[in-house]
Amino acid sequence: MARTNVYADEDYVEDGLTFRKIGKFIKTGWLRMLIYAVIAVALVSVVVLPIKFFYKTEPVAQTTIEFIYDGIENGETPNGGTLDTDNIISTVVLANAVESAGLGGKIKDISSLRAQMRVSAVETEEYIRLVNAAANGDNSAKEQLRTYVMHPTRFDIIIPNPDSLGLSDAQAQNLLNKIVKSYQDDFKSRYSITEMFPADTYVLSQSETYEFTSVYDLYTASLNSIEQIIEKYTESAPDFISTLENGSFGTLASALEELRMQYNLFNNYIMINNVWRQPDVAEDSLKAEQSLIEVKRTNLETYIASLKTLIADIKPNTITSTDSSGKTVTTETFPAKYYEYIDRLDTSNRELLTYADQLSNIQLRLQKLGDTGLAATPDQQREAVAMLVKLEEETTAFVKKVNNLISDYYDTTFVSSSVRQIRQPVVSRKSSSMNLLVVYACAVIAGLLVGGIVTGVKIGKANAKRAKSAVRADIAEAPADANAETVVDADDKEESKK
After folding, report:
1. How many helices (H) and strands (E) would you count in the chain?
2. Which helix (H) or strand (E) holds 226?
3. What distance in Å separates the CA atoms of residue 196 and residue 187, rounded to the nearest whole number?
4. Do the Cβ atoms of 64 and 155 come closer than 8 Å?
5. Residue 60 · residue 427 · CB < 8 Å
6. How far apart are CA 198 and CA 392, in angstroms?
7. Which of 4, 56, 100, 464 could form a disulfide with 429 if both were Cys (CB 3.0 to 4.6 A apart)?
8. 3-state secondary structure of 320
9. Angle at CA 439, nearest 5°, toward 438 and 445?
C-alpha cells in the first residue's frame, strides 16, 4: 500500500490566497523588494535630478504697472478715449528707455525690441470671481460671463528672452524700469493739462478797431471760464498747495475777485466819462449786438417752454412697500430723462439771466452814447488806455499763474499716481515642473512591484521543484509491482527528456 507524505509547509498545498501565504511571501521577498526599490530610486535620481536642477527654460523679464484714474474701470483714457496699451511699448517710449538705460550700443533696432516684447493684461478680481462661480455651477455668473467685458487696470510688461538681446539680468531689469518711467512721461505729455488758457490774447489796448467796451466784454468773458475751473478745483482739491510757489486754488479765487474789481473800476470809468474811441461805430455795434441777443433770448425762452412741457409730461413711477413697522410707504421715482431735462432747464434759466444782464448793460451804454454833451477829453482817453494796459498785464500774469497751478496739480496728483509701478522687475528662469515627491513615490512602487514579481517567480519555481521531489519520494517508497515500475520508468524517461 502506498504511503502519503505529510509536509510542514501546508501553505503550498492550500487552495486560494491566505494570510499565511501573504506573510510567507513578504518574509521571503522583503529584502529583494527593498533592493529593487532602492535601485529604482537610484536610477530615477540619475535621470530626474539633472533635469530638475540644471535644465532651465529661457529667462523671462517682467514688471507690472497699474492705472489709477476715473474711467480706467471702463477701459477709457483720462480724456474719455479708448485706452491703447500698445502705447506702453511704443517705439518712442522704448527709444527713450534704451537711451536712458545706456543700452544704445546693444539694442540698435528699436522695432526689433518692440516686436519681441509684449504687454499682457492681468485678470481682474471681478472676472476671476465670476469664472470661479460659473465653474461651481452658478447660473447667474454664467449669464454674466456671456456678455461680460473685462477692463483690466493692471498690465505686465514682458521681455520674453533678454539673453537673445544680449542683456544680463541686471540690464533687463534696468531697462524695464526705464520703460515704465518713459511711459509715465509719455502718459503725462498726452493727458496732462498745460497752458489750459491762452495768456497771449490780452493785447487789444492799442488797437483802434476795438472799442473799450468791446475789450472789456471780451476780457471779462474769458475770466468767466477761468472762474469755473477755479471753483471746480477749489471744491475738489481745497488742500492742494503748489510746490512751485503758485499758491492754491483758494488764493487764485481771491486774486480773481480782486482782478474783477479792477475791471469794474475800468468799466465805471469809461461809462462815467463817456470814453469812446469811435462813438458812431460803437453805437452801430451795440445795436447789432442788442438785436442778436434779443433773438437768442427769444429762442431760449421757446426752448425753456418746451422743456417745461416735457418735464410735465413725465409721470413718476410709484412703488409701494411696507416698512419694518408694517406701515405702507409710497415712493415716487422718475426716469433718468426727467433729471436730464431738469438740468437743462436750470442751465437755460441761468443763461436767460445772463442775456438780461447783457441787454441791460447795452442799454446803459447806448444811453451814454446819446449824451453828446459829455465827451471824454484826450487826457481821459489816455487814462482809459493806461488802465486797460495795466489790466492786460495783470490778467496775463494771473492766467499764467492759473495755468502753472493746474499743470502742477496734474503733475503732482493726477499724472504721478495715474500710472504706477506695482511690481519691481524680475528675471525668472523656470525649471522642470515635475514633482520630485511623486516621481520618487512612483519609483519606489515600481521597484517594489518588480521585486515582488521576481520573488513570486522564484517562490513558484521553488514550490514546483519541491512538489516534484515529493512525488518522487512517494513513488520510491511505494511497493514494487509491474505497474508502478512502468510508471516510474515512464516518469524517469519524461524527466530525462526535459
Report:
1. 14, 6
2. helix 212-236
3. 17
4. yes
5. yes
6. 13
7. 56
8. strand
9. 85
